[in-house]
Amino acid sequence: MKLRYIITAVLLMTISFHVNAQIAGKWSIEKANKWYAEHPWINGANFIPSTAINQLEMWQASSFDPKTIDRELGWAEGIGFNTMRVYLHSLAYKQDPKGFKSRIDQYLSIAEKHHIQTIFVFFDDCWNKIGLIGKQPAPKPGIHNSGWVQDPGDPAYKETDNFPALETYVKDVMGHFSKDKRILLWDLYNEPGNSGKLDSSLPLLTKVFQWAREVNPDQPISAGVWRWDFEKFNAFQILNSDIITYHDYEAPEWHKRALQVLKTHGRPMICTEYMARTNNSTFANSMPMLQKENIGAINWGLVSGKTNTIYAWDKPIKDGAQPEVWFHDIFWPNGTPYRKEETDLIKKLNNK
């Protein structure tokens, strides 16, 4: 595993696939670094309110919950977080384009009140294959992200007849907010190729970068590297991202090797997913390292809730009992820190 990691990390710098894969419009290194220097150290969490099981429950009009969003972003502000990474969903847009954009605007206003900028995510290859508009299922006891849904879903992601509607979605939403300073960055595709899709996600990944470049927003665009042996994806994503983003849930010695390789590209970096306690990826051993390296730090997640991300990916607890150690998340639903020493550390790193 570790030898493969080292070999594939080297491939990130040497692979020849990327020569013909760059889409016009990428920011220069100088522009990207100037943009990064204008921000304080970026840190925060992947956010979904505790009352939502998935992206659809967060964004549909019938279940949009600004009161909970306001309360929970207040807790994030209290420990010094300044950035949230938030998933959108094309089905919520399809159901109600105007209302969907209005709710995004409402969310952004709440986040701005708490001095928080947002990274929005468009597409996602993780978890359940098909999402349905309407009332969402109840969580399955003890199962991590039991109700999270892919976007645009499977097989929809590879059916090119769907691409025109997806293009409309991306361009309408991004175009509407393309100059909005409340948005930090557009994350175009979460973990492309996950859920066994492999290279079959590359056409949609390529398209969403093309659509984003045609919009040409004021904010940078990116798609995070997440699996080190996905050579085609890694090359394409790094070659076309203004800011390098990546995921790493490994122990710090392996995480550091990843960031050392990625830093060779000379671009600002944000780790958009980390912190899985039972994988030895913790606030104590990873967040100070990221700050020292001047790399943004966005952990998963914020408040324990319907997503069940206190449970590990592959270790369900069928009766829904509390795990011995929480996998993700920082706060109980009432705002009490899971581990006060963690929130104390986060405050210290943020000079709170």
CATH topology: TIM Barrel
Shape: globular
Q: What summary fits the major beta sheet?
A: 8 strands, parallel
What's the helix-strand series?
HHEHHEHHEHEHEHEHEHEH
Mean pLDDT: 94
CATH superfamily: Glycosidases
Q: Identify the CATH architecture.
A: Alpha-Beta Barrel
Given the helix and strand composition, which structural class is it? Answer: alpha/beta
Largest beta sheet: what is the strand line-up? 5-4-3-2-1-8-7-6
| DSSP summary: helix tally | 12
In whole angstroms, the N-to-C terminal distance is 39 Å
Strands, count: 8
The number of domains is 1
3D structure, described in words:
It holds the Pfam family Glyco_hydro_2_C. Residues 158-284 form the Glycoside hydrolase family 2 catalytic domain. One of its GO terms (biological process) is carbohydrate metabolic process. This protein has 352 residues and is α/β, with parallel strands linked by helices. It has one domain: Glycosidases (TIM Barrel, Alpha-Beta Barrel). Helix content is 38%, strand content 12%. The protein is built from twelve helices and eight strands. Helix 8 links the parallel strand 4 (183-190) and strand 5 (221-222). The longest helix has 17 residues, at 97-113. The relative contact order is 0.17. Mean pLDDT is 94; it is low at 10-19.
